[in-house]
Write a structure and sequence with these properties.
By secondary structure, this protein is an all-alpha fold. Helix content is about 65%, strand content about 0%.
């Protein structure tokens, strides 16, 4: 997956921030980058939840559409179940990791 320019800029600003205080303009730019990142993560989370619903209702066409959308957003569509809809995200939540992996 190609790194989005917004993430490259956010990394640049973070490196600058470690060396000196950000200017007002740089601080606003960092806030913008963080907002874009939060929006991106929220959209992916929504798509993962919808994909789980599609899997649970065995709606393969809808799940296929959602997986394509997840891939477009840079996510991993297989994280919410297998292509046959037999996996369930609750299986992973009973394990030792307990995290969402995002």
């Amino acid at each position: 997956m190609k790194l989005m320019p917004i993430y490259e800029r956010m990394a640049e600003l973070r490196i600058i921030q470690k060396r000196r205080k950000l200017t007002d303009s740089e601080r606003l730019e960092m806030e913008h980058c963080l907002d874009v990142n939060a929006d991106h993560c929220m959209r992916l989370a929504q798509l993962y939840n919808l994909s789980l619903m599609a899997s649970m209702t065995e709606d393969k066409e809808w799940q296929h559409q959602l997986c394509q959308e997840i891939e477009r957003f840079g996510g991993t569509p297989s994280s919410n179940g297998s292509s046959d809809g037999s996996s369930n995200s609750n299986e992973s939540s009973n394990g030792s990791s307990g995290g969402s992996g995002s």
